[in-house]
């Protein structure tokens, strides 16, 4: 990876969602602007806020997709990330740091 680029793999849960009443909402359903979760696979040398293995929140409309060895990934800039999930939320914190 070069510069401030982050390579992520989309979470499986980003495709279909389940409503609180149990209705399956397909990925193609039109909803308001919704952010997506992904797992960081690789980072460039100038990325300082996230590291490999972090779970990050980003806008799926601002992405470039790439396929490597049959697996789909998303290429982002570090500034396009909106949040990072903590590995284990403790106490009454949200489990996110922004």
Automatic annotation (TrEMBL):
- Annotated keywords: Chaperone
The highest taxon in the source lineage is Bacteria
- MF annotations from Gene Ontology: ATP binding; protein folding chaperone
Which InterPro entries does the record cross-reference, listed alphabetically?
Answer: Chaperonin_GroES, Chaperonin_GroES_sf, GroES-like_sf
What are the boundaries of the signal sequence? none
Q: Name one Pfam family in it.
A: Cpn10
Classification via SUPFAM superfamilies = GroES-like
State the family it belongs to: Belongs to the GroES chaperonin family.
Q: What is the protein named?
A: Co-chaperone GroES
From which organism does this entry originate?
Actinotalea soli
